[in-house]
Amino acid sequence: DKAGHKHFMAKEIAEQPRVIGEALSHYLKGDTITLPGDGIDFTAYDRLTFVACGTAYYACLTAKYWFETLARIPVEVDIASEFRYREPPIPARTAALFVSQSGETADTLAALRYCEGKAATILSVLNATESSMARESDVVLPIHAGPEIGVASTKAFSCQLTVLLLLALEAARQRGEIDAARMAEILPKLRALPAVFGNAIDGADQTRAVSQELAESRDVLYLGRGLMYPLALEGALKLKELSYLHAEAYASGELKHGPIALIDSHVPVVVMAPRDALFEKTVSNMQEVMARGGRVLLISDAEGIAAAGDGVWRSIEMPKVDPLLAPILYALPAQLLSYHTAIAKGTDVDQPRNLAKSVTVE
Ligand code: M6R
């Protein structure tokens, strides 16, 4: 049932304010972050290993920034199909964390099994809680997104991010790395996020017009820095998956180490850059693109768009949020650009060619 939407993807995008709220309400009771079962003792680990595929892998990359900066715990992130065959050593006092919408992805499940008996604890962040990964984990952290039918992961991604951020905050608290004042500042902002996300959906009409133009191009580049780098990767994956356009993402700082050679007036460059501490650095990357005739599509808040000045080809304005929360909000323009571009190209949005919702073969 598409609940009046043209596609499951549109329905699932629209559901995000509600399901993010759902995830929050399961983990956030008053000022306390509560974890399922006996909880997780983050002081018992010296490092974390995150493993997943596709969009879930990008959720892990985002979470690495959160865990390392907030909780000061080293995090290794890997693609399941690489991790499992490398047979990496797993030092004692490592928690292994697997992220999966379906809980059945063959490579992620094999990576989880590889960690059994090696990692101190096996954690999984799952949407399907009746799944193989759920049965084989020590602690299951449900994301509460509800069934996701569209092949492209949308609400599962934003709910994965929400739960991972809560985990990182709880890890930071347990390890004494976050002060009470910062916690008291961030939790209400997190609680307000569903409403902010809802407003962003209402104001997101700009993405439709610009997607018509993206649909005309052959290649699209996505750039992001820090927390926005995994979002750039996710934006490029979504665009490829749904519209069959060639899209690549780079960390903004890597531009001049090769990909800048691709820039000309035919290649739109999507820059995801809220006005945060790294914004000025990204502006200089944008200028390098514009100086070579590149067309910059800037996704930022009003302040960022004003600061970027003229010369930007198109911009999409997002509400201003605490930079820590920006990845959850910026999932939305990544999704909408790919959705509208796919419609402009006439591709099958809910069932893109060659893809399956759950990849249970290796
Ligand atoms: O069920 P999983 O979360 O383990 O699936 C992982 C990937 O196959 C999945 O995220 C895939 O990349 C999506 N189709 C992307 O939209």
From TrEMBL:
<feature type="active site" description="For Fru-6P isomerization activity">
    <location>
        <position position="357"/>
    </location>
</feature>
<comment type="function">
    <text>Catalyzes the first step in hexosamine metabolism, converting fructose-6P into glucosamine-6P using glutamine as a nitrogen source.</text>
</comment>
<protein>
    <recommendedName>
        <fullName>Glutamine--fructose-6-phosphate aminotransferase [isomerizing]</fullName>
        <ecNumber>2.6.1.16</ecNumber>
    </recommendedName>
</protein>
<dbReference type="GO" id="GO:0005975">
    <property type="term" value="P:carbohydrate metabolic process"/>
</dbReference>
<keyword id="KW-0677">Repeat</keyword>
<dbReference type="GO" id="GO:0006487">
    <property type="term" value="P:protein N-linked glycosylation"/>
</dbReference>
<dbReference type="GO" id="GO:0005829">
    <property type="term" value="C:cytosol"/>
</dbReference>
<comment type="subunit">
    <text>Homodimer.</text>
</comment>
<keyword id="KW-0032">Aminotransferase</keyword>
<dbReference type="GO" id="GO:0097367">
    <property type="term" value="F:carbohydrate derivative binding"/>
</dbReference>
<feature type="domain" description="SIS">
    <location>
        <begin position="32"/>
        <end position="177"/>
    </location>
</feature>
<keyword id="KW-0315">Glutamine amidotransferase</keyword>
<feature type="domain" description="SIS">
    <location>
        <begin position="210"/>
        <end position="352"/>
    </location>
</feature>
<dbReference type="GO" id="GO:0006047">
    <property type="term" value="P:UDP-N-acetylglucosamine metabolic process"/>
</dbReference>
<keyword id="KW-0808">Transferase</keyword>
<keyword id="KW-0963">Cytoplasm</keyword>
<dbReference type="GO" id="GO:0004360">
    <property type="term" value="F:glutamine-fructose-6-phosphate transaminase (isomerizing) activity"/>
</dbReference>
<dbReference type="GO" id="GO:0006002">
    <property type="term" value="P:fructose 6-phosphate metabolic process"/>
</dbReference>
